[in-house]
């Protein structure tokens, strides 16, 4: 389609960008766009105006005060917070050229996509476009970029019709759009935003090139532009679906190894001597990506008439691990003649992964619930998560320090660096000679008195 020349795309070096959603994805993106930089492709100096919009007022307030509760920013990155115009009001981002939507896309209780946050963000963008049209009908074209994980077809078939209906405008005329899926790895201080290659796509050729150049100006690892939006959407969900299936395979290996009586970690280390073996370890699978994205792909698959048996089998395996691991722990406690209904259990870690305060869809919750059926004396220790948020969400009390008492069982559920730093001998101080210690994350070397998968 030929673009309307009265609505040309904005200039790369001076465009105004609004990031909608300031969590693990949106905030690092806002930081990078707020920096004054030299474009790696053109050599031009770039200084953009960046807005950060989030409906959570507490989040906006903490960012204005230079604090980031996600712990993703280092001290140098925090300096750029003052370069971003943070707000909870869409009226303050009306002169935006580029809207980048980074809101969560969770699943509901039935494990189907919950697109309410995405719908709300689309409505916000549409209102901004309408207000801008009223102020200046001759404004240059708006660009909407989606980074939230969705099923293939969601951008064009779900998101854009919302904007078209509210704005009474057509795609690629008064606005164009693209999809560039997030690849943030929370807690990873090495593979940060700029170090990970970025997938890009656009609603037409001119927009595709424009969006690719936009991200290319900040992503050191480079970009990969797909021929259409559905390919970028599918690539995102298959990335995490593949990892989910690989972990499910290793979890099943752990179950088999337990039956045989061999050490799973040693099996994996041995298999890893082959060049093409994917080295993963068993455990609880949670979070807002690996534990969620496969359901977006299966949702779309079922909608078009194909039952994805392999993907769902992997999900079933990984969702069952909390119950399986709890059973292993309880079995070992019984072997040591520990009375279960009066047992004191310490769970170390509550976030969904190591060195990260994010507890969304944490697998530790399933473990806790399984153990709670046998004893109510369970202490959960995690110095990284927000204990008030955990209590509000799950009604579980989180301790920021380990109580000074002896436990009948200690379960290391998350591989936080601070747990490794404590050392096994320090952890043993909270046990007695009959206690069971379960090292789920292999953070310590093998010891005969330590249980692991």
What does this 3D model show about the protein?
- With 453 residues, this protein is of the alpha/beta class.
- The protein is built from 15 helices and 16 strands.
- The strands form 4 sheets. Strands 5-4-1-6-7-8 form a 6-stranded parallel β-sheet, sandwiched between helices. A 6-stranded parallel β-sheet has the order 13-12-11-14-15-16.
- It starts with 15 loop residues before the first strand and ends with a strand.
- The N terminus is likely disordered.
In brief:
The model is unreliable at 1-6 (pLDDT under 50).
Share of helix, binned: 25-40%
**Large-scale geometry:** elongated
> Total number of β-strand segments?
16
* Mean pLDDT figure: 93
Q: SS-based structural class?
A: alpha/beta
Number of helices: 15
| % residues in beta strands | 5-15%
- Give the low-pLDDT segments: 1-6
- Main sheet properties: 6 strands, parallel
Cα distance, first to last residue?
57 Å
**Main sheet strand line-up:** 5-4-1-6-7-8
